[in-house]
Amino acid sequence: MARDPAFVLRYLAEVEELAKDMLAARQQIVDLDVKRNRNREALRALQKDPEPDEKAMVCFGGMFIELPKAKTREMLRQDQEELDEEINNLRKELRVKVNRLYEAQGKPELKGFNLNPMSAEEMKLINRILEG
Amino acid sequence: SRSFPLICSLPTTFCVSRSSVLGSNSPILRFLPKFWGSISILDQHPPNFTLHPNFGVLPPHLNVPTPKFWGSPLIFGVFPLFLPYREETEIIEGEVVEIQIDRPATGTGTKVGKLTLKTTEMETIYDLGAKMIEALSKEKVQAGDVITIDKATGKISKLGRSFTRARDYDAMGAQTKFVQCPDGELQKRREVVHTVSLHEIDVINSRTQGFLALFSGDTGEIKPEVREQINAKVAEWREEGKAEVIPGVLFIDEVHMLDIESFSFLNRALESDMAPVLIMATNRGITRYLSTPGQNHSLTHLGTPKSVVVTLFGEKETQKVLRIGCEEEDVEMTEDAYAVLTRIGLETSLRYAIQLITAASLVARKRKGAEVGVEDIKRVYSLFLDESRSTQYMREYQEAFLFNELQGESMETP
């Protein structure tokens, strides 16, 4: 039952690639969350700042730039929104990636109900109904 | 996937049979879809179910469940329909590094504080408001605890203490649970799939007797308006892919005890695309409907086109059931006796064979035998008549009995 070594090599490479892909996405989520939390801390700091009209030192990739605080806050907020969106997209992709990896490894697909989530209001409604 | 009813013929009143039907190595399992958890079992003993279909329209005459016979107040208590739905929540999960709460010097006024959380990958500081501080102190959160905070509701729950802090104290409660410091991101998304049965939704919504009706089972009829509203909502959720309806498995024991109205209801209910897998158990082949004397086609109309009839007991199964029966009765039996008893079970009825077990064990005990042997079985077989032999006996000695002049009304066995 000797397999063609070239085939085995190709197969292993494929699995490795898929696994790397998945791990990269997972790491990226973590990295983005780190950034998100830093931004949040910065926003809080700006909000509590006793002198809101002055300028703040903002660090862009190793360089500090002095910017008006209102502008800085706006930039941070925009950044946060983008981060949220990106993390959401990555999470969605992650599921697909995990399944693709499992398929390549010959493992059964992760089973769920494939349901879309209820919205927050609907959950509130359901909980209220079920709690009587 | 369409569900289909199964009719199994087996002696259902014998308790072993029920577990062998629903047990893990049951032949029926092969026919069932994977949602094996959701079984409702309707048993006719005692007949205490209320009439309430979850889906499908009741024939009008069924709206008043009047008991005609003891067994017929039918009973579609629960069509098992399950509705899983998914909830997505954002949670913050991490190990508490430090909690710092500043009390105002006056003693009153708003408290402010800071909470430092970390995972294996990151660490961050949250500013705390008065409410969060209160929640944290209520949960007695200290540095070293692993906690989750529900982002939407602000609910805090303690998962345990971090392993890294395991050596902080020597004496601690037995209930202290140690967990790993969470890895990955701090703000996670958690998906929870809840399941609710449609029956529950109905009952709570109808509120004829409040929430408690769900537990007492005393729900009465669900009003059509309520049902329509619920159906509409559920249909909407299905459309949006937010919920799914899983028909369960309905097991009806002693199905020949149901009357014709029940069957007409069942028949209609099975047309619904939310019909459950129906397993009906009976030990009759063709018998009459209750409440319809003279019509001899009960199970057949459900039986022929829509269902799969599974006869559970061949020789192997019969012997297995007998072995379980012996075990239950603490009776030892020789292999030869098993063989004889199995033969009897196949040729007369399984129930008769089961009943011989106890009698034979008494005979064996009387002759001070340790095991039930073939001669004991033979002895009780000669002492106790089975159905066909007793019928034959009655026929033979018909003239010797009272009321023998009633012609044409010969003894009939069900």
UniProtKB/TrEMBL annotation, chain A:
It is found in: Cytoplasm. Gene3D superfamilies: 1.10.287.370. InterPro entries: PDRG1 (IPR030482), PFD_beta-like (IPR002777), Prefoldin (IPR009053). The keyword Chaperone applies. CDD domains: PDRG1. GO terms for molecular function: unfolded protein binding. Keywords: Chaperone, Coiled coil, Cytoplasm. Pfam families: Prefoldin_2. Residues 69-100 form a coiled coil. GO terms for cellular component: cytoplasm; prefoldin complex; RPAP3/R2TP/prefoldin-like complex. It comes from the Eukaryota. GO terms for biological process: protein folding. May play a role in chaperone-mediated protein folding. PANTHER family: P53 AND DNA DAMAGE-REGULATED PROTEIN, P53 AND DNA DAMAGE-REGULATED PROTEIN 1. Component of the PAQosome complex which is responsible for the biogenesis of several protein complexes and which consists of R2TP complex members RUVBL1, RUVBL2, RPAP3 and PIH1D1, URI complex members PFDN2, PFDN6, PDRG1, UXT and URI1 as well as ASDURF, POLR2E and DNAAF10/WDR92. Belongs to the prefoldin subunit beta family. This is p53 and DNA damage-regulated protein 1. It comes from Serinus canaria.
TrEMBL record, chain B:
Its main location: other. It catalyses: ATP + H2O = ADP + phosphate + H(+). The keyword Flavoprotein does not apply. Residues 85-290 form the TIP49 P-loop domain. Its EC number is 3.6.4.12. Residues 321-386 form the RuvB-like AAA-lid domain. It holds the Pfam family TIP49. InterPro entries: NA-bd_OB-fold, P-loop_NTPase, RuvB-like, RuvB-like_C, RuvBL1/2_DNA/RNA_bd_dom, TIP49_P-loop. The keyword Plastid does not apply. GO terms for biological process: cellular response to estradiol stimulus; cellular response to UV; chromatin remodeling; DNA recombination; DNA repair; establishment of protein localization to chromatin; negative regulation of canonical Wnt signaling pathway; positive regulation of double-strand break repair via homologous recombination. GO terms for molecular function: ATP binding; ATP hydrolysis activity; beta-catenin binding; DNA helicase activity; identical protein binding; promoter-enhancer loop anchoring activity; RNA polymerase II cis-regulatory region sequence-specific DNA binding; RNA polymerase II core promoter sequence-specific DNA binding. Keywords: ATP-binding, DNA damage, DNA recombination, DNA repair, Helicase, Hydrolase, Nucleotide-binding, Nucleus, Transcription, Transcription regulation. GO terms for cellular component: centrosome; ciliary basal body; cytosol; dynein axonemal particle; euchromatin; Ino80 complex; MLL1 complex; NuA4 histone acetyltransferase complex. It is found in: Dynein axonemal particle; Nucleus. Proposed core component of the chromatin remodeling Ino80 complex which exhibits DNA- and nucleosome-activated ATPase activity and catalyzes ATP-dependent nucleosome sliding. PANTHER family: RUVB-RELATED REPTIN AND PONTIN. Belongs to the RuvB family. This is RuvB-like helicase. It comes from Serinus canaria. The gene is RUVBL2.
